[in-house]
Amino acid sequence: MSNLIAKQYEFAAHASAVTCLRVGPKNGNILVTGGEDRRVHLWAIGHADPILALVGHTTPVQCVAIDQPEQLVVAGSTSGTLKLWDLQQGKAIRTLMGHRAAVTAVEFHPFGDFFASASADHSVKIWDVKRKGCILTFHHANVDVLRFSPDGKWILTSASTGPPDVRLWDLNGGRLVHQFAHDAPVVQITFHPRELVMATVAATGVMSFWDMDTFQRISCTSDLPPDAPLAAGTRMVFSEDGTVALALAPGHVTVWEWEPVRLVDAVSVPYLTAIDDAVLAPSGTHLVVVAHVDSFVQVFQLNVTHLRPFRSLAASAVHDYQPHHHHHPHHANYAPAPADPYAAPAHPPPPRHDLPPYARPPPPGAAYPYAPSAPGMTAPPPSPHYPYNAYPYAAAAPYHGQAPQPPPRAQLQ
Predict the structure, then answer these.
(1) Residue 255's beta-bridge partner residues?
(2) Which UniProt keywords apply (predicted)?
């Protein structure tokens, strides 16, 4: 277990209970949380002080989402109000009203300026950010799970009440296309990174894999013997190439092949008591897993190279990067791979010109460029686990005021 968990820590996220949280989908290095204190906080994973405090809601925040470029955050409240923030500007740019009850889920469209919201009023709405309004409404019980298809043409919904199914809707008019029947309510919907395959996780922990061309089930973990390690509260993440699925459940992590379904590895992780969200880092070597307990957030970094089949892949990667003796007999510039998978590389990566200016990391050796100007505020150095990812949002609107101070709680050891 000690090898699998590379890092774990806990911090006070809000002055009252945390109600929702999401990890940034691009790199897994930022976190957005919402709380009963009506605030939304943006965090750099590895630090216990928020980068931004996003305010404006007048009732407790119920759900939150961050877009793929990590430039926009949307949050829904118990009053039915939605607020949209621009992280570069550090301020709310839209307040959208249309739901008559609490917002239960929000999700960004994979391309363009659209997002979806679901509410306890049994409606699902599609919003156009630029047109500042709702462009489509359809109804499906009390939806609490939303997911757009990777091509952006469909949206899938799952409700905690009514028939336990996942419904597929055509965004061109809101037509119901198909219903995927399940034995229990679905708590997560995700997609294969390279194929048109959908994966669903039921409240019982059972995972199903679906062909989105034929809408047929490919495989299901309920087909395994009764002693298979399935549990309620499971979250699933595909590997980088999609060949296996990692299932994170309270107390253990399992790895599955999905065509046909087969258990590959299982590891006990007692500290992993709850999972709210998980993102595989771009390196494919570790998972960022987050959970909340009362007003605290727990963050785990799991080194998946200690699991099969990642163990053999990591070994082959190290072998591939051995120096070529016949070309470089003295190996003066060769730097062996660090033993710590999160240690800084020997040489910084090349600059990324595809990023917007505010998100580009500083050149090696440069002074910290995002130090906030608010009196009394000092910016901590970048996390050693993400040495080339500085704070892209602090320059726009640094966090003002004191960090949240909930009742004391014992720290994880």
Answers:
(1) 246, 265
(2) Repeat, WD repeat
Identity of the residue numbered 292 = H
Residue 389 DSSP one-character state: -
Q: Are 235 and 188 in contact (CB under 8 A)?
A: yes
Tell me the pTM: 0.75
Domain residue extents for the chain = 6-313
Kindly report the backbone phi and psi dihedral angles of residue 149, in degrees, each rounded to the nearest multiple of 5, phi listed first.
-70, 155
Query: E-assigned strands of 45-170?
Result: 52-54, 61-66, 72-77, 82-86, 91-96, 103-108, 114-119, 123-128, 133-139, 143-148, 154-159, 165-170
Decide: 77 and 63 in contact? Cβ < 8 Å. Answer: no
For the CA atoms of 118, 119, 124, 130, the dihedral, rounded to the nearest 10 degrees, stands at -70
pLDDT given for residue 324 in this prediction: 35
Are 32 and 72 contacting, i.e. CB atoms less than 8 angstroms apart? no
Q: Regarding the domain delimited by 6-313, which CATH topology (the fold level of the hierarchy) does it fall under?
A: Methylamine Dehydrogenase; Chain H (2.130.10)
Q: 23: which strand partners? A: 31
Task: State the residue for tokens 């150095």.
Answer: 381
pLDDT at 47: 86
